[in-house]
Amino acid sequence: MTFANLGLSAPIVKALEQKGYKEPTPIQLKAIPVVLKGRDVLAAAQTGTGKTAAFTLPIMHALSKSSSSKRQIKALIITPTRELAAQIQDNLNLYGKYLSLKNTVLFGGVSAGPQIQDLKYGVDIVVATPGRLLDLCDQGLCNLEAVEMLVLDEADRMLDMGFISDIRKIVKLLPKKRQNLLFSATFSKEIRVLTKEFLNDPVSVEVDNKTTAAQTVKQRAYRCDGAEKPNLAVTLIAKGKWKQVLVFTRTKHGADRLTKHLNASVIESAAIHGGKSQNARVRALDDFKAGRIRVLVATDIAARGIDINQLPHVMNYELPNVPEDYIHRIGRTGRAGQEGEAVSLVSNEERAFFTDIQQLIGQSIELEIRKGYEPKEWPARMPTTHEVQKARDARRNKMIKERGPRPPRGSAEKRPAKRKFSGGGRSGSKAKRPPRSKD
């Protein structure tokens, strides 16, 4: 089966062939014909399966055949992160190389000026994160009244990030008659509810999520104490002579701490997470792709949309709380039939997460011990995921009790003011200075 057999137009097929794409992936094979028929689609596919092309290709085909020549927003693609939005736009530019369609991307963290200019001149396709899109719509700078196709990409992640309210507001701005495509990693209960709310008699499309991302990836894991993780990470990268590795942490602060440690160990690294400016995130990603840094340390949310050809190594510095996120992570390597390696560092506190991951992927991963990093003796009984989470909640509650709750973001409540210095200096002193001597 080729892309031409799926019914895609010659200009699109030509662009795909020039890039070396000849055969559609399973998700593309199942989704593209259904989208071309104009049906609503509920699709489950992991990162690395070619899901972006599964909706961008038929969208561009449909719009290029449209009888309307007026330049207005006909397709809207909503994503949870800036990186994913930028990646989708890259794909639109690549696949639409020989089409006259115009697109733009709308997300925060950068000046809205260029985005507003694109909207002013007219575009056919908009890729956007919810916040910036609503801001521009509220200002009357973005009109969605002509949208014919809506895509909710990484819908499960958008629910996790609390975007459901924003999505509902956006949908109210759209025409009732439109085609809807929802892509998610899983068909969870929450996704099913979302489907009933936004989709009309959808066709369900699903590929084998459990093994798709792991088939070409060699998975390894090392037992270690949590305190030894920074040094073990340095040893694995340095001794293994890894030239390019994407490292995952659970938190922004953890990403920054590890990046500082790696750089101090003469391993060029940069962190990418929600606390970084968009320019810093783009610069770090560009440096990583160009080989100017060896290690990119990322949180799960920031890593959405990172697409690097032939990435050789992924490291789970900290295991994810949600087993499905493990598949997303290791799916960054081993793409397009290439081999890759995923290495996980597992502390005693993470054993329950490690067990859940193995159950999800249906594979047993041997826990190795690196010489010089032998962990303390582990308890005979592994804690359950519930027990691990309960212990974390207890530590968090203890910390909050000791320091007191922080005022909510945007609250008028202020922290206690710092005591003003009253020793006659500039800061806090109301005393007048003596007149300057004329001498």
UniProtKB/TrEMBL annotation:
GO cellular component: cytosol
Domain of life: Bacteria
Family matches, as InterPro entries: DEAD/DEAH_box_helicase_dom, DEAD/DEAH_RhlB, DEAD_box_RNA_helicase, Helicase_ATP-bd, Helicase_C-like, P-loop_NTPase, RNA-helicase_DEAD-box_CS, RNA_helicase_DEAD_Q_motif
Residues in Helicase ATP-binding domain copies: 32-205
Domain Helicase C-terminal: 216-377
Major enzyme class: hydrolase
Record keywords: ATP-binding, Cytoplasm, Helicase, Hydrolase, Nucleotide-binding
Bias (Basic and acidic residues) ranges: 387-415
Family according to the record: Belongs to the DEAD box helicase family.
Protein name: DEAD-box ATP-dependent RNA helicase RhpA
Protein source organism: Rubritalea profundi
Origin organism lineage: Bacteria, Pseudomonadati, Verrucomicrobiota, Verrucomicrobiia, Verrucomicrobiales
